[in-house]
Amino acid sequence: MTPADDPQARPRVTGDRELEILDATIDVLAEVGYDRLTMDAVASAAKASKATLYRLWSSKATLVLEALLVLKDPPAGELDTGTLRGDLLAMHCGHGRLTDPRLMAVFSSIITALGHDEEFASGFRERFIGPKIARSREIYRRAADRGELRDGVDVDLVSGALAGIMLHREFLLGLPPTVETITDVIDQIILPAALRPTLLQENA
Protein backbone atom coordinates (compact mmCIF):
# COMPACT_ATOMS: atom_id res chain seq x y z
CA MET A 1 0.00 0.00 0.00
CA THR A 2 1.39 3.41 -0.94
CA PRO A 3 0.95 6.54 1.21
CA ALA A 4 -1.67 7.80 -1.25
CA ASP A 5 -3.68 4.61 -0.76
CA ASP A 6 -3.48 4.56 3.05
CA PRO A 7 -6.71 6.05 4.48
CA GLN A 8 -4.73 7.09 7.58
CA ALA A 9 -2.13 8.98 5.54
CA ARG A 10 -4.43 11.70 4.23
CA PRO A 11 -8.07 12.77 4.51
CA ARG A 12 -10.38 10.69 2.34
CA VAL A 13 -11.62 13.86 0.66
CA THR A 14 -9.29 16.86 0.40
CA GLY A 15 -11.67 19.30 -1.23
CA ASP A 16 -14.51 19.91 -3.65
CA ARG A 17 -12.40 18.99 -6.68
CA GLU A 18 -11.59 15.58 -5.27
CA LEU A 19 -15.26 15.05 -4.45
CA GLU A 20 -16.11 15.87 -8.06
CA ILE A 21 -13.64 13.24 -9.26
CA LEU A 22 -15.04 10.64 -6.89
CA ASP A 23 -18.59 11.46 -7.96
CA ALA A 24 -17.58 11.14 -11.62
CA THR A 25 -16.04 7.77 -10.77
CA ILE A 26 -19.36 6.55 -9.39
CA ASP A 27 -21.14 7.76 -12.54
CA VAL A 28 -18.71 5.91 -14.82
CA LEU A 29 -18.84 2.84 -12.58
CA ALA A 30 -22.65 2.72 -12.70
CA GLU A 31 -22.64 3.22 -16.47
CA VAL A 32 -19.98 0.77 -17.68
CA GLY A 33 -19.12 -1.44 -14.69
CA TYR A 34 -15.89 -1.98 -12.83
CA ASP A 35 -14.26 -4.21 -15.46
CA ARG A 36 -14.69 -1.62 -18.24
CA LEU A 37 -13.93 1.43 -16.11
CA THR A 38 -10.60 3.07 -16.98
CA MET A 39 -8.66 5.95 -15.50
CA ASP A 40 -8.98 7.66 -18.90
CA ALA A 41 -12.78 7.40 -18.75
CA VAL A 42 -12.91 8.84 -15.24
CA ALA A 43 -10.50 11.64 -16.17
CA SER A 44 -12.69 12.54 -19.14
CA ALA A 45 -15.90 12.46 -17.09
CA ALA A 46 -14.32 14.53 -14.32
CA LYS A 47 -12.59 16.92 -16.75
CA ALA A 48 -9.30 16.14 -15.06
CA SER A 49 -5.97 14.83 -16.26
CA LYS A 50 -5.04 11.19 -15.81
CA ALA A 51 -1.88 12.41 -14.07
CA THR A 52 -4.07 14.06 -11.43
CA LEU A 53 -5.87 10.79 -10.79
CA TYR A 54 -2.65 8.80 -10.46
CA ARG A 55 -1.20 11.42 -8.15
CA LEU A 56 -4.05 10.73 -5.71
CA TRP A 57 -4.78 7.04 -6.40
CA SER A 58 -2.23 4.50 -7.55
CA SER A 59 -4.72 2.20 -9.26
CA LYS A 60 -8.27 1.79 -10.48
CA ALA A 61 -9.04 -0.35 -7.42
CA THR A 62 -8.02 2.34 -4.95
CA LEU A 63 -9.88 5.06 -6.87
CA VAL A 64 -13.12 3.07 -7.07
CA LEU A 65 -12.91 2.01 -3.44
CA GLU A 66 -12.48 5.57 -2.21
CA ALA A 67 -15.37 6.69 -4.41
CA LEU A 68 -17.54 4.01 -2.81
CA LEU A 69 -16.64 5.27 0.65
CA VAL A 70 -18.52 8.53 0.04
CA LEU A 71 -21.65 6.36 -0.20
CA LYS A 72 -21.20 4.93 3.30
CA ASP A 73 -24.14 4.87 5.69
CA PRO A 74 -24.36 7.30 8.61
CA PRO A 75 -23.07 6.08 11.99
CA ALA A 76 -25.32 3.63 13.79
CA GLY A 77 -26.07 6.23 16.44
CA GLU A 78 -27.82 8.33 13.82
CA LEU A 79 -30.11 5.39 13.08
CA ASP A 80 -31.38 5.03 16.66
CA THR A 81 -35.17 5.11 16.40
CA GLY A 82 -35.85 3.25 19.65
CA THR A 83 -36.91 -0.07 18.08
CA LEU A 84 -35.23 -2.75 16.00
CA ARG A 85 -37.91 -2.40 13.33
CA GLY A 86 -37.42 1.35 13.05
CA ASP A 87 -33.63 1.03 12.98
CA LEU A 88 -33.74 -1.56 10.19
CA LEU A 89 -36.03 0.61 8.09
CA ALA A 90 -33.78 3.62 8.64
CA MET A 91 -30.65 1.66 7.76
CA HIS A 92 -31.96 0.17 4.52
CA CYS A 93 -34.32 2.78 3.09
CA GLY A 94 -33.40 6.15 1.66
CA HIS A 95 -30.57 7.87 -0.18
CA GLY A 96 -27.42 5.76 -0.36
CA ARG A 97 -29.22 2.65 0.83
CA LEU A 98 -30.94 -0.35 -0.75
CA THR A 99 -33.82 1.70 -2.18
CA ASP A 100 -31.38 4.06 -3.96
CA PRO A 101 -31.22 3.06 -7.68
CA ARG A 102 -27.76 4.61 -8.05
CA LEU A 103 -26.35 2.51 -5.23
CA MET A 104 -27.88 -0.65 -6.68
CA ALA A 105 -26.39 0.18 -10.09
CA VAL A 106 -23.01 0.49 -8.41
CA PHE A 107 -23.43 -2.85 -6.63
CA SER A 108 -24.31 -4.45 -9.95
CA SER A 109 -21.19 -2.99 -11.53
CA ILE A 110 -18.74 -4.43 -8.99
CA ILE A 111 -20.05 -7.98 -8.50
CA THR A 112 -17.74 -9.56 -11.08
CA ALA A 113 -14.72 -7.66 -9.76
CA LEU A 114 -15.16 -9.21 -6.32
CA GLY A 115 -14.41 -12.58 -7.86
CA HIS A 116 -11.23 -11.73 -9.75
CA ASP A 117 -9.69 -8.45 -8.52
CA GLU A 118 -8.10 -9.39 -5.20
CA GLU A 119 -6.90 -5.87 -4.42
CA PHE A 120 -10.35 -4.37 -4.89
CA ALA A 121 -12.23 -7.23 -3.20
CA SER A 122 -10.03 -7.11 -0.11
CA GLY A 123 -10.38 -3.34 0.25
CA PHE A 124 -14.12 -3.44 -0.42
CA ARG A 125 -14.78 -6.03 2.25
CA GLU A 126 -12.59 -4.34 4.82
CA ARG A 127 -13.43 -0.65 4.28
CA PHE A 128 -16.95 -0.70 2.80
CA ILE A 129 -18.67 -3.86 3.99
CA GLY A 130 -16.84 -4.03 7.33
CA PRO A 131 -18.31 -0.76 8.67
CA LYS A 132 -21.78 -1.79 7.50
CA ILE A 133 -21.50 -5.03 9.46
CA ALA A 134 -20.35 -3.07 12.50
CA ARG A 135 -23.32 -0.69 12.24
CA SER A 136 -25.71 -3.60 11.89
CA ARG A 137 -24.24 -5.30 14.96
CA GLU A 138 -24.63 -2.06 16.90
CA ILE A 139 -28.31 -1.88 15.94
CA TYR A 140 -28.88 -5.43 17.17
CA ARG A 141 -26.84 -4.74 20.32
CA ARG A 142 -29.15 -1.87 21.17
CA ALA A 143 -32.15 -4.11 20.53
CA ALA A 144 -30.68 -6.69 22.92
CA ASP A 145 -30.09 -4.01 25.54
CA ARG A 146 -33.75 -2.98 25.23
CA GLY A 147 -34.80 -6.59 25.77
CA GLU A 148 -36.21 -7.00 22.25
CA LEU A 149 -34.20 -10.05 21.14
CA ARG A 150 -35.14 -13.62 21.91
CA ASP A 151 -32.62 -15.85 23.67
CA GLY A 152 -30.07 -17.56 21.42
CA VAL A 153 -30.64 -15.49 18.29
CA ASP A 154 -27.63 -15.59 15.92
CA VAL A 155 -27.22 -11.88 15.24
CA ASP A 156 -24.62 -12.29 12.47
CA LEU A 157 -26.91 -14.71 10.63
CA VAL A 158 -30.08 -12.67 11.01
CA SER A 159 -28.49 -9.29 10.36
CA GLY A 160 -27.31 -10.29 6.88
CA ALA A 161 -30.63 -11.79 5.80
CA LEU A 162 -32.40 -8.59 4.77
CA ALA A 163 -29.68 -7.35 2.42
CA GLY A 164 -29.21 -10.87 1.07
CA ILE A 165 -32.89 -11.21 0.18
CA MET A 166 -32.98 -7.78 -1.46
CA LEU A 167 -29.84 -8.39 -3.53
CA HIS A 168 -31.18 -11.79 -4.61
CA ARG A 169 -34.40 -10.19 -5.80
CA GLU A 170 -32.56 -7.37 -7.56
CA PHE A 171 -29.84 -9.30 -9.37
CA LEU A 172 -31.43 -12.70 -9.93
CA LEU A 173 -35.11 -11.85 -10.25
CA GLY A 174 -34.90 -8.30 -11.62
CA LEU A 175 -37.04 -6.88 -8.80
CA PRO A 176 -35.57 -3.63 -7.45
CA PRO A 177 -35.86 -3.04 -3.69
CA THR A 178 -38.73 -0.87 -2.53
CA VAL A 179 -39.66 0.46 0.88
CA GLU A 180 -42.76 -1.75 0.82
CA THR A 181 -40.78 -4.93 0.07
CA ILE A 182 -38.14 -4.14 2.68
CA THR A 183 -40.91 -3.52 5.23
CA ASP A 184 -42.51 -6.86 4.38
CA VAL A 185 -39.20 -8.73 4.75
CA ILE A 186 -38.57 -7.07 8.11
CA ASP A 187 -42.07 -7.82 9.38
CA GLN A 188 -42.43 -11.33 7.97
CA ILE A 189 -38.88 -12.71 8.19
CA ILE A 190 -36.43 -10.66 10.27
CA LEU A 191 -38.56 -9.74 13.27
CA PRO A 192 -40.08 -13.22 13.70
CA ALA A 193 -36.54 -14.63 13.70
CA ALA A 194 -35.11 -12.05 16.10
CA LEU A 195 -37.74 -10.76 18.53
CA ARG A 196 -39.00 -12.26 21.75
CA PRO A 197 -42.37 -14.01 21.15
CA THR A 198 -44.17 -11.63 23.51
CA LEU A 199 -43.07 -8.65 21.40
CA LEU A 200 -44.27 -10.35 18.24
CA GLN A 201 -47.66 -10.87 19.83
CA GLU A 202 -47.80 -7.19 20.85
CA ASN A 203 -46.97 -6.09 17.29
CA ALA A 204 -49.36 -8.51 15.62
UniProtKB/TrEMBL annotation:
Domain HTH tetR-type: 15-75
Record keywords: DNA-binding, Transcription, Transcription regulation
Statement: the UniProt record of this protein carries the keyword DNA-binding: yes
Segments of the chain annotated as binding DNA: 38-57
PROSITE patterns in alphabetical order: HTH_TETR_2
Pfam families: TetR_C_11, TetR_N
Gene3D superfamilies with a match to the protein in the record: Homeodomain-like, Tetracycline Repressor, domain 2
Entry keyword Transcription regulation: yes
Top-level division of the source organism's lineage: Bacteria
Protein name: TetR/AcrR family transcriptional regulator
